[in-house]
Amino acid sequence: MDANKIIMVDVNDVGFLDNTENRTGAFIRPVDTALMLKDCYWIEFELSRLAMGWVTAAPNWEWKGELVRMGYLHTEHMKKLRQRIDELPGAALSDRSWTPERVAEVFLAVSLAPAFAEFALAYRSFVSKLYNRYTWLADALDPILEEPTLDALRVIELDRKRLIDWADPHVRFAYVDDSVSRMRFDSWRQYVDRMWDEMFTKGGSPATDWAERLQHPPAGPVPANPAVDPKYPHVDLTKYKSAMFDPNSPTYDSVKHMIFINASEMSATESLTYLYYGVQKMPMDFYHDIARHTWDEARHSQMGVRRLKQLGYRTEDFSWHPSTALTPDNLERTFPEFYSSLTMVMEPCSFIKKRKSVESFKDHGDNLSSLQSEYDIADERMHVQFGKRWGAKLFEHIDDFVTAQSVAEKAKQLHLEKMGYSQSEINGVLKSFPEFCGFATMDLKYDRY
Ligand SMILES: [Fe+2]
Ligand SMILES: [Fe+2]
Fold first, then answer.
1. Which CATH number goes with the domain that contains 406?
2. For the ranges 21-35, 87-101, 125-139, 337-351, the one whose mean pLDDT is highest
3. Which of 55, 136, 384, 398 has the most beta carbons within 10 angstroms of its beta carbon?
4. CB under 5 Å of ion ligand 1: residues
């Protein structure tokens, strides 16, 4: 044997792994797994859009929070899947990747449900079928060769019950005493189940449609007028610039107004769901960050409402800020502006009163409210980072003329204009951060509880 013989190995020459034609018997090859995971990845994304898109069509504050949570969980599944897809050959995802057309068409069709119950049914049908796929995969994959994939599926499996069971109260007895609507509901059910199969048939647009579509216009997603929960009556915006300025609120004159401000964050949540659903073809990391941000705002609202109720208040005793709806003509301008002013103005400015509240609540012996403000600040700090990451890109992405550098300035300017200040007043404070915050938000009566 020649001891000097050198064997050259090109470790990058693995193109043969990408070849989907090169069968290996009936076995699932790495490239097959990657392609199957990629199908699941886009279905998770569309389920997340479906859930987020219907938040503003839900006429109940609790349901809104639940849907945001579900939308977020789907993005967590996407992260697990993408991690594994990136390890496998043949199906790499890039920043420009987007839902395949057929999948997007099918999801759009079943998302246009005539009422909330029909939406809940469509969601349950599709999420159940996705979990059936995961079950099939977990059974078919080689337990040693594909153990990393099975690990990802194991994590996704944790949410099965929560996601599938969620719709049950909405669909089990839907229209039980209304035979006409029940017929509509049953025909919708058949349609939705057929549409899932359409997703995987090759060629052309989906063949099936729902015959009653014209008779029953969709109630969501992203409705022009967000559905209102009657337990959260709206503030009179002709009298006050924002709900927090309404002196009739029971907490108005005390530090406890901080809790109410948190409770009212469902309106920011809802605006973010429009952004999440409406902005197309940003990198997937953007959707993951926005999903987290949206869910955090829902959590802030939940912690606020929970505390108000513990302190003996009813949500009906307050007036609440309405959510901002997306319409086709305002999407391009309003939403990047909304996002920038949220992450570059409202959130950084709110640090000041939140930090003071942490101490004040402690002084008044209210440790739980103090703790809530601490968690709040921790989340908001992350949101400010999200804003730095995406605010400018959002403007660029939708071909707005604004440059990246001017976004923060523009956001502040717009915020103050909306609050009714004159240009000379704005110019006076624009460069000065603490004064600017004094204008943009309100201070609390920290000495009163
Ligand atoms: Fe918040
Ligand atoms: Fe926030």
1. 1.20.1260.10
2. 125-139
3. 55
4. 265, 297, 300
